[in-house]
Amino acid sequence: MTAESVPTPVHHLPSYLDKNNLGPWEIYLEQVNRVTPYLGKLAYWAETLKRPKRILIVDIPIHLDDGSVAHFEGYRVQHNISRGPAKGGIRYHQDVTLSEVMALSAWMTIKNAAVNLPFGGGKGGIRIDPRGYSQGELQRLTRRFTTEIGLIIGPEKDIPAPDVNTNPQIMAWMMDTYSMNVGRTATGVVTGKPVQLGGSLGRSDATGRGVFVAGAQALKKMGIALEGARVAVQGFGNVGNAAARIFHDHGAKIVAVQDVTGTIYNAGGIDPNKLLKHLSDTKSVQGFEDSETLEKDQFWELECEVMIPAALEKQITEANANKIKAKLIVEGANGPTTPAADDILHEHGVVIVPDVLANAGGVTVSYFEWVQDFSSFFWTEDEINARLDRIMAEAFNSLWDVADTHKVTLRTAAYIVACTRVLEARALRGLYP
Ligand code: NAD
Fold this sequence. Notes:
Among the domains are: 54-197, Rossmann fold; 206-358, Rossmann fold (3-Layer(aba) Sandwich). It is 42% helix and 15% strand. It has helices at residues 24-35, 98-114, 135-149, 168-182, 203-222, 238-249, 272-282, 318-321, 339-347, 355-358, 360-375, 381-406, 410-429; strands spanning 54-63, 69-80, 86-87, 90-93, 121-127, 158-159, 230-234, 253-259, 262-265, 292-294, 306-309, 328-330, 351-353. The chain has a seven-stranded mixed β-sheet with strand order 10-9-8-7-11-12-13, with helices on both faces. Strand 1 and strand 2 form a beta hairpin. The relative contact order is 0.13. It binds nicotinamide-adenine-dinucleotide. Residues 162-165, 207, 234-240, 258-260, 310-312, 332-334, 359, 362 line the site of nicotinamide-adenine-dinucleotide.
């Protein structure tokens, strides 16, 4: 039987999901459904994209500082490994669910393929609000979690990295724990490590730098000057603060910043370097000099050219998409825009550089880190930034051309390119046995 003679399999939802509350996985499924008509004969394999390859759910018991034992729920999902080992971050957040980790792992598959990195997609998370725990507790949590998911991770199998509320120190503990368990120092098991342990120069700013490169390319295509462009940033963590600093360094004006504690605004511009210092002193963007405080929802109504959602998913929805005045949205976060909001913004002529392209700078430098760890030969920061800039600009321009050819959004273009690459690999490999 040839692929052409066999009907496309019917999609059934996995039984382990709550059919009435699919969470972010529903957004991802909708995105795949939208692209299926563009996949030609490869659509035969599209069901592959709608099922994670492997899911591990673990119990993580740890001793708290007061001597009691607490249990946490942890996940590692390998969505797809057709093109290479699974790759994707680890999130510590009280709202982590299986559906969320599944969607985030699938977006990694799409992202890695859209930028043509030789990786599949994976993601992990622990359901915890880390703010309430000591460094000792977080270290015990990280080490036990790493041991539990040690069954499926490894430098050639699945390589975690930082995500929301995880950082180079947590990656160092993960690398050490995995290394202790396998009896050798395995630096390549995680990326986003400290530079002293085989981390890459340029990694900490890489996602924000990629957001900037993609955003600057988009502004150029749209005929909007970067110099003086007004930028509003939601999220001032790893991604948001780096993106804000790099836009600022290139002459753009950061007019608003929102984080979990509140929203600040200054039409004349906020200096993100000073804001970073204020944040490290006070743990909040609120109260920053020369800025006024806005209500949370006012953020989306601001007059600006560029909006950078760089916090969490489902931030731009039907409820606020109509109010957005920005001409360009560059998705630093994963999944910040719902499909319904996507449609509204498209109708209004707002260009969206989708997450799977816009925030791919992080995993691109993670890829460089992994390559450097394997060869034990380390590159200079200039080499890394130059390679990153080239990959991001080339990926942006080729997706822009695909969008133009098919008269589709950049998101659909990214999915066309990425799904084609993943499914070509699937078709060439064939089914085992
Ligand atoms: P982070 O933990 O460093 O920062 C998160 C930021 O979001 C913080 O400023 C926090 O205050 C803010 N925030 C949290 N909840 C909020 C809310 N309800 N409203 C407004 N602000 C809120 O995380 P990060 O690593 O910067 O990741 C941010 C996003 O970027 C996530 O979607 C993540 O998946 C994505 N991402 C991260 C990387 C990376 O390299 N770190 C790479 C690709 C994508």
